From TrEMBL:
Residues 1-69 form the HMA domain. One of its GO terms (molecular function) is metal ion binding. It holds the Pfam family HMA. It comes from the Bacteria. InterPro entries: Heavy-metal-associated_CS, HMA_dom, HMA_dom_sf. This is Copper chaperone. It comes from Galactobacter valiniphilus. Keywords: Metal-binding. Gene3D superfamilies: 3.30.70.100.
Amino acid sequence: MNTTVTISGMTCGHCVMSVKEEIEALPGVTGVDVNLVAGGLSTATVTAEREITVLEISEAVAEAGYTVVAENA
């Protein structure tokens, strides 16, 4: 199952590493692909063995210091 969200506030590779680390800590997550758009809105696609809710992803992203602004269809 894949879920893609849009994240604001990310500007560098360290941001990507922080977001990936927090999301990968969620139970059932098997992969995270982050597309960084420095100074813009970045996306993260989460692959998991179970349905991961946008709320779960949002909370993990917030732990890293960033904000999920939208779920992408």
